[in-house]
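Re: the pair you flagged

First of the two:
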Amino acid sequence: MSTIILADMDAFFAGVEIRDNPSLKGKPVVVGADRERSVVSAASYEARKYGVHSAMPIARAKSLCPDLIIVNGNMAKYKAVSDEIFDIFTGFTDMVERVSVDECFLDITATLDRFPSALEMGAEIKRRVFEETALTCSVGIAPNKTLAKLASEKRKPDGIFEIKPEDVADILKDLPVRELSGIGAQITKRLADTAITTAKQLGEAPLELLVREFGVNGRNLKLMGAGRFENPVVPYYKAEEVKSFSHCHTMMTDTSDPNVIRAELMRLSEKTCARMRSYGFSSRTVGIIIRYADLKYVSKNKTLPDSVNDDLTVYRTVCGLFDSMRHKTEVRLLGVALSGLTTGAPMNLFDNKKEKINETMDLINSRFGHIMTRARSIKKD
């Protein structure tokens, strides 16, 4: 059985700013921009006491907390600190998967014998991080990634918690399904429609029901509910071998509505590009994947003159591909795929405004999930 750690930095962006400016310690701090329509990208725990949270409009945050201190973000600095922390983790195991700028999974199964217990290794990881960066992290330990993520939330901030195999059933018994990593609001609602609201109910649900409702993902959902979903840690040196990036999504209902389709293509373009950029790649070949109501799959690619990594270029390309195809039935699934990867900046550099937008969105979404999106990804009535 595996032993997995999730190390999650506490209020990372805000924590770095407070560390570098000690006068901010103990005060309500957010990272963002003090201007109209800006949003909070990170909030200190003091700010959270007022109800301030990520993705909240700055204006709303200021109304909740009149003494709020707003600090401009510095992604280059956060990435540099993130690299320092990553180096610490690789001293404990080479099986380290970087989830985002402030989260890493560590598979310590093969190196656990260096310490009397997993808890003691987790405590040493926390100590090293604080000693070398003056920042705190929360550590979750469990037999798999889903449970490790759950464990990391149990003692935040600056805590450590282990879910042992013999405790899994008790912890999942009354746990709302929305608290399982990877189950968002949409899946939670669809599960509720079938009277499934807890992890235990999900783990005990008939496989046929889940597969009918969620396709191949139904099997994984059942395993997640039972605490047995084995999603291996992908170490950094294997992640570097990636040849392409893609995201697919099954629509809530089959559709031919162009507004719904374009909104979904925008969202998929954002997610795929953000993931590609996080690995430092650009792409020359953009593709669209479609599954129709009759379950037939089709795909089409276009190779561009220069490599790209910005959302809007990819979005316009996949929209052009979609418009060039003949669609005999409604669309059931959409996907965006990027291949022909090149390292470094794209050959045809996009302007500074686009770069800043992408950087800000990546910064927020890498920390808090895909919560920030362009207006064109919102489905119109």
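Second of the two:
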Amino acid sequence: MSTLQRSWGSLRQGLPGLLAAIALALVARAISQALAAGAAGLPKFPLSPVMCAVVLGMLWRNTLGVPAWATSGLRWAMHQLLRSGIALVGLRLTLAGAGAIALTALPVALTCLTVALTAGLVLARVLAVPRRLGILLAVGTAVCGATAVVAMSPVIRARHAETAFAVTCVVLFGCAAMLCYPWVAGHFFAASPRHAGIFLGTAIHDTSQVVGAALMYSQQMQQPEALAAASVAKLLRNLSIAVLIPLGAWLARRYEAQLRAVDGADAAGEGDEAARGGAPVRLVPFFVLAFLGFIVLRTLGDAAFHASPWWQAAINTGYTASDLFLTCGMTAVGLSVSFTDMWRIGWRPLASGFAVASLVGACSLGLTAALWHFFP
């Protein structure tokens, strides 16, 4: 079968689910507009279309369920479409703007990363969470959510069940933060969209959740600069995976060598065969490189065509496409959250994940507020 035939078959298989995500996103936008206008005599209650989309998707998944025919398209929207939207956010920044945000966000990002890794490992030991599951929870909270969990899993020879548990924890607490933290940012940083974005970018786990929260905040507060700031702050955390994955591999080999020295056991046998033979890990995802590429493109384009109407039209088109892709992708994220999965994990991993996520959020809030106060 030719590549064209395979692509067409994949498109036909995924199209129904993609259309379902688009339809639900349109319904969420209509609900958001109705709430903002005070429809049916209700008091006006401005609510972000993205927040409506995520909540509506979660309610749909956990009441009516998601049919099998929609799974492929929703997965495509949640990955390819959402990542394309994240990459296009780079058009909102120039190299100078991104550098200024990065300098402000770097101490917050590094501190939150350290707190998440340290607290995650300590709490896992205190709560008797299995060692590899504790590592996955710590790395997922510290770096980039489910992506970091999946990347670290084969390196430390984690079991499939441990990987699934860690991903579920990170998704659950990250979604909770995505829905709650925009209100926190609005309370503390309403006068500074840059600091609001830095808080969201360093306090929430997964890249999609950070962008979803920042988009909610931007729509709610009419401050689009927050989305760009959150994306840059999150990028700093994402890049740390290039250090943590090799470090995790070295520590895992060292731990196995110590076990063999003590009792002669083959520590590598603890993990699943599938976890041991995983695909090579891409340390820097392609959409992160595309995000940086769009920043460079915006910088060069502004320098060469700043006064050109067609360049401004192209930038505005990129903004519109980014918002559309992100809204549809976040609808698919909402449709992927299952409340019943939470009860299958057990209270110890949940308690550990919740405690680490709360510590990281508090740390980010305190440091960002201090930066805003002392270095406005």
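Residues 90 and 117 are 28 Å apart (CA to CA).

-B.
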